[in-house]
Amino acid sequence: MDILLILKALLLGLVEAASEFLPISSTGHLIIVGDFLDFTGSRAEAFEIFIQLGAILAVVWIYRERLLDIALNVDWDRKVQRLVINLAIAFVPAAVLGLLLHKTITHYLFNPVSVAGALVLGGFAILLIERYARTGRVQAMEEMRWKDALLVGIAQSLALFPGVSRSGATIMGGMVGGMSRFAATEFSFFLAIPTMFAATFYSLYKEWHNLNLADVPMFAVGFMAAFLGGLVVVRFLLAYVGKHSFAPFAWYRIVFGGLLLLYFHYHPWVGKGG
């Protein structure tokens, strides 16, 4: 067993957990950390599929009772039916654009320099939305209209650009539409379930040939790190959003992205095979 590889898997699993649900971009952080750890290429892409699955299963576990309630009551409860319809509406834009643009985006934009720029721009966007968005019209995600869901879905499409952040885009999209931070955050978590499952299984289908039985220990460590870390991060964010703004995450993005741009200015990035 390669201990160094296991440690890389542990670190990347924790990075996935911390960045998947906070508005700081998991894809962006995995690209950057993977590049610095020299863990890139097809093997890394297959690994990332499994740690993303671990992270989203953390959301499923935390919301298991509400998800079961939705499954049992969707036939007759109008609020549940509206929530399911809104999730479907919000899911469609990114799903369609992802299928159409996946290869192009992966080829041209999956690099640390693009990610750094997106981190900075996204940070400023969060600050502007926090300052000017009129939140509070929608206090619970069950109160959303289909127009609110569509706006969140369009916002989620922006996260196809690595470094934007899926959670950040959906939460900010909801706030622009008048949702409270808590309602927007919860809807973002629920929307993550179909979105990330679809993306994970699509990626698994595309990367199946890169899976190797010898990598099972590495995948298992990364998966468990992402799952357990995800449990902590989701609970933290739910407690945080009721009393605080997302401004600290915005400043983190700006400073981190700015430092990366400065670093790559003096150390030009070149693609790595793997």
UniProtKB/TrEMBL annotation:
This protein's UniProt keywords: Antibiotic resistance, Cell membrane, Cell shape, Cell wall biogenesis/degradation, Hydrolase, Membrane, Peptidoglycan synthesis, Transmembrane, Transmembrane helix
Please, one GO biological process term?
peptidoglycan biosynthetic process
What's a single GO CC term here? plasma membrane
Bilayer topology reads: Multi-pass membrane protein
**Where does the record place it?**
Cell membrane
Record flagged with keyword Hydrolase? yes
**Where does it mainly reside?**
membrane
Q: Which reaction is this enzyme known to catalyze?
A: di-trans,octa-cis-undecaprenyl diphosphate + H2O = di-trans,octa-cis-undecaprenyl phosphate + phosphate + H(+)
> What function is annotated for this protein?
Catalyzes the dephosphorylation of undecaprenyl diphosphate (UPP). Confers resistance to bacitracin.
> What remark does the entry add?
Bacitracin is thought to be involved in the inhibition of peptidoglycan synthesis by sequestering undecaprenyl diphosphate, thereby reducing the pool of lipid carrier available.
**Belongs to which family?**
Belongs to the UppP family.
Mind telling me which HAMAP family this protein's record contains? Undec_diphosphatase
This chain's protein is named Undecaprenyl-diphosphatase
The source organism is Candidatus Contendobacter odensis Run_B_J11
